[in-house]
Design brief:
The protein is an alpha/beta fold and 363 residues long. It is built from twelve helices and twelve strands. It folds into two domains: 216 residues, Isopropylmalate Dehydrogenase, CATH 3.40.718.10; 128 residues, Isopropylmalate Dehydrogenase (3-Layer(aba) Sandwich). It has a ten-stranded mixed β-sheet, with helices on both faces. Strands 6-7 form a two-stranded antiparallel sheet. The chain is globular and about 60 Å long. The protein binds adenosine-5'-triphosphate (ATP) and magnesium ion. Pathway: Amino-acid biosynthesis; L-leucine biosynthesis; L-leucine from 3-methyl-2-oxobutanoate: step 3/4.
Length: 363
C-alpha cells in the first residue's frame, strides 16, 4: 500500500517558519513510528504570485485535489497590498476552499493545563476543556439570494437571506456525526428554530441524519442559549454543529475560552473521496503575522496542532495525534513559552525552532 499523501503549502510571512517545525515532526514520525507520508511542497499566496503571477497555480490546485490532505501555513503580507484584488494572496486560499468544496469548518477549543491560568474564565471552567465546533462554511446568510441594498419607497433597505437546502444541512451534519464518532460521541446542534424557518429545517434534517449514527448522543440548543452555556460550562459539550453565521460567532467565542492566536488550529473538510477520507485542508487560525515574520519569534504550536488534526481526521491516527498534543502540553508544563504566550515576569521567550525542537524531544 502506498503512503498517505500530504501537500504542504507554507505560504508567506511566518508560514514557512512554523511549517519548518511541522516538518521536523513529520520526519520524526517517519523515522520513529514507521508512519511515512508522501510529502510534496508547493507555493500559495504572495510567493506563488512572485513566481507565477497568480496566487495559486493550476498545477498546485490539481495536486490539492488529489492528495489525502493539504497543510497550509499562512498567506499575505504588506508587500502585496498594492496588487489587484483578483491576484491578492488571499485569493489563493479562497480558490482552494471553493474548488475543494470545503463545507465543514472545524475549530477546536482545547485547554492546555499550563495555560489554564491565562483564560479569562475561572480555571476549573476551562481546565481539561476539549471541544470542537463544526461551522457550515459555504452557504447560509453569507451567500443566500436575494441580497443587496435596495430602494423601498423613500428609503433604502439592506437585505440578506438565510437559506439552507436539505442536502447542505445533511452533508455538514454527516461531517459532524463522523467527528463525534472519533471523539466523545456527543453532538449538540445549534440553531434558532424558535424564530427561523431555516432553523426548523436544520433541526429536522440533523435529527434524521442522526438515525444513521445511533451511538452518538444528539441534542439541540438554541444558538443564543448555546453561547451562554459555552461560557458558563463549556465542558458539557463535545462536538457542536451549527450554520455559517452562528458558527462564525460561536467558534470565535469558543476559541478564546482557552487561548492565544498562536495556539489555534483549524480544519476545513469536504465530501468523502473514493478512499472514504474527506477532502481536507488544515491550517492555523492565525495569519502571516508580518510584524514578526523572519525574526524566529512565531509560535509554531497552532500549525503543529493543525497537523495533529490531520493525523486524527484524515489519517485515522488518533493515538498519534494525542501523542503530539501531549508533547505540546508537556513543553508548556516545563515552562517553555514563545513570546506571544508570555504572562509571567522574568520568563525568557524561546524561539520558533527551540519550541519545535522541544516538542519533538517530548514525542
Ligand atoms: P490575516 O489577515 O492574515 O489573518 P492578521 O493581521 O489579521 O492577518 P495575524 O497575522 O494572525 O492576523 O496576526 C495578528 C497578531 O497576532 C500579530 O500581532 C501577530 O504578530 C500575532 N500572531 C499571529 N500568529 C502568531 C504566532 N503564530 N505566533 C506569535 N504571534 C502571532
Ligand atoms: Mg486576521
Amino acid at each position: 500500500m502506498s503512503n498517505p499523501s500530504l501537500l504542504i503549502l507554507p505560504g508567506d510571512g511566518i508560514g514557512p517558519e512554523v511549517m519548518a517545525e511541522v516538518s521536523k515532526i513529520i520526519d520524526w514520525f517517519g523515522a520513529k513510528r514507521g508512519l511515512k507520508f508522501d510529502v510534496s511542497e508547493d507555493l500559495v499566496g504572495g510567493c506563488a504570485y512572485d513566481k507565477h503571477g497568480t496566487p495559486l497555480h493550476d498545477d498546485t490546485m490539481a495536486k490539492a485535489q488529489e492528495v489525502d490532505a493539504v497543510l497550509l501555513g499562512a498567506v499575505g503580507g504588506p508587500k502585496y497590498d498594492v496588487l489587484d484584488f483578483s491576484v491578492k494572496p488571499e485569493r489563493g486560499l479562497l480558490r482552494l476552499r471553493k474548488e475543494m468544496d470545503l463545507y465543514a469548518n472545524l475549530r477546536p477549543a482545547q485547554c492546555f493545563d499550563a495555560l489554564a491560568d491565562f483564560s479569562s474564565l475561572k480555571k476549573d471552567v476551562v481546565a481539561g476543556l476539549d471541544i470542537m465546533i463544526v461551522r457550515e462554511l459555504t452557504s447560509g446568510v453569507y451567500f443566500g439570494e436575494p441580497r443587496g441594498i435596495f430602494e423601498e419607497g423613500n428609503e433604502r433597505v439592506g437585505i440578506n437571506t438565510q437559506r439552507y437546502t436539505e442536502s447542505e444541512i445533511d452533508r455538514v451534519a454527516r461531517s459532524a456525526f463522523e467527528l463525534a464518532m472519533k471523539r466523545g460521541k456527543k453532538l449538540c446542534s445549534m440553531e434558532k428554530a424558535n424564530v427561523m424557518e431555516s432553523g426548523i429545517l436544520w433541526r429536522e434534517v440533523v435529527t434524521e441524519v442522526g438515525k444513521d449514527y445511533p451511538e452518538v448522543e444528539l441534542s439541540h440548543m438554541y444558538a443564543d442559549a448555546g453561547a451562554m452555556q459555552l461560557t458558563r460550562w463549556p465542558k458539557q459539550f463535545d462536538v457542536i454543529v451549527t450554520d455559517n453565521l452562528f458558527g462564525d460567532l460561536l467558534s470565535d467565542l469558543a476559541a478564546m475560552l482557552t487561548g492565544s492566536l498562536g495556539m489555534l488550529p483549524s480544519a476545513s473538510l469536504g465530501a468523502p473521496m473514493e478512499n472514504g477520507r474527506p477532502k481536507a485542508l488544515y491550517e492555523p487560525v492565525h495569519g502571516s503575522a508580518p510584524d514578526i515574520a523572519g525574526q524566529g519569534k512565531a509560535n509554531p504550536i497552532a500549525c503543529i496542532l493543525s497537523f495533529a488534526m490531520a493525523l486524527r481526521y484524515s489519517f485515522d491516527k488518533g493515538d498519534e495525534a494525542a501523542r503530539v498534543e501531549e508533547a505540546v502540553n508537556a513543553v508548556l508544563a516545563d515552562g517553555l513559552r514563545t513570546a506571544d504566550l508570555l504572562g509571567e515576569e522574568g520568563v525568557q521567550p524561546v524561539s520558533t525552532s527551540e519550541m519545535g525542537d522541544a516538542i519533538v524531544a517530548k514525542l
